[in-house]
């Protein structure tokens, strides 16, 4: 007699039934190529007892996961995960009825909970396709600066921008210690000094570029005092200083915009999604009025070891930089504009530790004693 037949008979002798298949039906929406598509699939799980079924329900239950756009196979796709919830008594009833009727499988009763917002919500608001991506690098930044970049980017990740004006400062909220930001080096006029939120301008600069590449009208934008090494090419940076300087744009697209951020491997990226109704071309930077960098400066830093020297800013030439843009709308309208930046010359900045303590002079040699 074959081994599996023996096992089956042994199971019958012990009063055990053969496993049933619990079938879970999954219904998910996907945004692809500007269309909202519904997919239905199934997953099957062997269940031999009521205890196994209850453990399976605990394993499958999950909260909803918010929408996310992913790039694969050369295209952007919006995905989400609905929450799954199970009524244990309903599932046990379905299992018992299937076993009593000699069936091989049964459907798991499940309740779906869409995320908020869902892909269906985004589609209804006009978030349907990729519009623009911008990125900047922050290699070499201090841990405090990296923390501020990550925190500010997370506050804007998954943000819905309705039609009308958008304010970076309003969307971000207060840049303060109470809001979780740390102290790091910031530019204040013609000085580099410690201030709360150093690194936030990396976030405003990167988002400004995404808005610029998407063809949105710029309502308010401020260049930095000098050309910051992190923000190449020059002319596409955006400084913010609450409450005096802000980054403002106009969402004049047919619907809402969705901002998605990612921070990884020393790079910050912003992706914009919405309804594409224009084509954008830009050229530059065009650089004139060049001026040589200033001499380097040193800033005492008592937290550094004695004699230590650390560069925190790099020399940059002064210049006037122009970046031009041409936006062609689907209805034939054309809008041309330019971003003008005037940078002052800048010198490298070094933090220096305290001066090393002077070495004690060597003790004089002992004189030989005189003969008695």
From TrEMBL:
Biased composition (Pro residues): 355-365
Region annotated Disordered, chain positions: 353-372
Family annotation (InterPro entries): Glycopeptide_resist_protein (IPR052913), Vancomycin_resist_VanW (IPR007391)
PANTHER family: EXPORTED PROTEIN, EXPORTED PROTEIN-RELATED
Protein name (record): Putative vancomycin resistance protein
């Amino acid at each position: 007699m074959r081994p599996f037949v023996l096992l089956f008979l042994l199971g019958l002798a012990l009063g055990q039934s053969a496993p049933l298949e619990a079938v879970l039906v999954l219904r998910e929406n996907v945004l692809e190529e500007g269309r909202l598509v519904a997919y239905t699939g199934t997953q099957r799980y062997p269940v031999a007892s009521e205890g196994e079924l209850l453990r399976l329900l605990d394993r499958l239950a999950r909260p909803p996961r918010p929408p996310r756009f992913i790039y694969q196979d050369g295209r952007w796709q919006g995905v989400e995960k609905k929450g799954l919830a199970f009524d244990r008594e309903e599932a046990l009833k379905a299992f018992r009825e299937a076993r009593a009727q000699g069936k091989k499988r049964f459907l798991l009763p499940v309740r779906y909970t869409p995320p908020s917002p869902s892909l269906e919500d985004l589609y209804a608001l006009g978030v349907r396709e990729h519009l623009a991506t911008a990125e900047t690098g922050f290699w070499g930044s201090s841990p405090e600066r990296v923390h501020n970049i990550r925190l500010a980017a997370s506050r804007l990740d998954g943000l819905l921008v309705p039609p009308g004006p958008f304010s970076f400062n309003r969307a971000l909220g207060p840049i303060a210690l109470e809001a979780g930001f740390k102290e790091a080096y910031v530019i204040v006029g013609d000085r580099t000094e410690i201030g709360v939120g150093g690194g936030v301008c990396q976030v405003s600069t990167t988002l400004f570029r995404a808005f610029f590449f998407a063809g949105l009208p710029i309502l308010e934008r401020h260049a930095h005092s000098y050309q910051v090494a992190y923000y190449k090419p020059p002319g596409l940076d955006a400084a913010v200083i609450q409450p005096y300087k802000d980054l403002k744009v106009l969402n004049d697209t047919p619907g809402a915009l969705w901002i998605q951020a990612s921070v990884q491997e020393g790079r910050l990226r912003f992706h914009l999604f919405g309804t594409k109704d224009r084509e954008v071309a830009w050229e530059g930077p065009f650089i004139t009025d060049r001026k040589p960098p200033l001499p380097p400066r040193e800033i005492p830093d008592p937290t550094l070891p004695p004699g230590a020297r650390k560069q925190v800013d790099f020399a940059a030439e002064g210049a006037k930089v122009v970046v031009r843009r041409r936006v062609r709308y689907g209805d034939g309208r054309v809008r041309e504009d330019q971003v003008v930046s005037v940078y002052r010359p800048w010198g490298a900045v070094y933090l220096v530790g305290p001066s090393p303590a002077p070495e004690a002079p060597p003790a004089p040699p002992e004189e030989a004693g005189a003969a008695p």
